[in-house]
Amino acid sequence: MNTIIDFDIQAFADANVQTTETAKSGNDLSASMKEYYDTELLENAKEEFFFNQFGKVQTLPKGNGKSVQWRKFDTFGKSTTPLEEGVTPDGNTLNMTSVEAKLEQYGDYTTVSDMLDLTAVDDVILSCTEEHGTQAGLTLDTLTRNELCKGKNVSFPTKLVDGAETPVTLRYQLDSTAKLTSTMVNKVVTKLKKNKAPKINGKYIAIIHPSVSEDLRESEGWIEAHKYASVTEIFNGEIGELHGVRFIESNEAPIFKGADLSPNSRNLKATAANTTASTTITVGANNATEALIGRYVLINGEKYRVTNINGNNKLILDSAVIVADGDSIYPGEGGANGCAVYGCLFFGRDAYGRVELSGGAMEMIVKAKGSAGTADPLNQRSTVGWKAAHAAAILYEERLVRVECGSSYSDTDDAN
Q: Global pTM?
């Protein structure tokens, strides 16, 4: 008679090969290692903070919903009416307004195979932690940047047309000659002062792209940051000062530039003339794709929105236009002829607010091999990830000015 013996062969498997302690339910790593990884994540994240190092910080206590609120008091006007002897005046009223933003959660993770590094699990986790820290910093900083780009206070420098300075009033009129200059910086400073924007440690702040800073560094009066670093705390990315503005350089400063209009070419060409104004433009066969619906295009220096596609070679626009056979059609989200436009953000104290990332707002999560139970029966996988809650909002429009300009690199840089 054959006897069948049942036994759990998985009981002989190594449940966890991490170097801190065996994973247990609800305990991924030892407290000291988790604290170490949390610190590494946060430090690497903060190295990528260019926009998030400024702004009014607001915390959201646990159990208070998903909306973050920043409150501000209206300023009192001047009191120029003389007091009457023995008469108590009516006094002033205190008015408070608030700005709200919805808190959202963001995050990512990486799955690590046991074959990646069986003998140095902590080193692999540390490397993932550092990479995810950088990712987290860039993600949260970009979210704040995108919120600031919604500001309505926009200025443009002049551009050169036949050697003469020409005013610019719209983004799509900008080209590589419309650079950020010392004169333009001075005008923005004047605007902030007239708006009574308070300064940050006695100066205004501007965050600009390296393609813009190259042009600006040549300005007379520019002071390199290292010349005053010994007496002033330097912000992350700070490169210098001009006209009372401290400049922060970041590759994440916004670049506005439309994507290519077709899979095969950046621009399109009209393949038939419209002798009278029409909302329909004929382009090359198979160039009119649904991806263009809702996009903006530039035709003869003017901006139009693509509202629909007819077949595979006709664009339907939001307004009529006259074109000649062979006229170029450029992406319309950037500057003239589809070139890159740079957003330079100038601001004073408390122009915008953000959520503080400490106190549990950012979390490092490590799931060791064996912690997944039957979902990982051979203990082949561990995961390293992060999640964070974030919200940002403009608090005072008058304290924030976005200068949109071109640069020497407008024809080569891409949107970010």
A: 0.86
Write the pLDDT tens digit of every residue in 49-95. Answer: 999 999 888 877 776 677 788 887 777 888 888 999 999 988 888 88
Distance, CA of 346 to CA of 246 (rounded, Å)? 9
Nearest to 70 by CA among 59, 78, 61: 59
Sheet holding 352-355, edge to edge: 56-58, 352-355, 392-394
By DSSP bridging, strand 204-208 and strand 245-249 are parallel
**Phi/psi at 385 (nearest 5 deg)?**
-155, 180
Taking the C-alpha atoms of residue 187 and residue 208, their distance in angstroms, rounded to an integer, is 16
296-352 tens-digit pLDDT: 999 999 999 999 999 999 999 999 999 999 999 999 999 999 999 999 999 999 999
Collapsing DSSP to helix, strand or coil, 147 comes out as: helix
Query: How many C-beta atoms lie closer than 10 Å to residue 53's C-beta?
Result: 17
389: nearest Cα among 145, 138, 136: 136
Q: How many CA atoms lie within 13 A of 239 on its CB side?
A: 18
**Which two three-digit tokens encode residue 329?**
């059609």
Six token digits for residue 170: 């719209």
| Cross-strand bridge partners of residue 219 | none
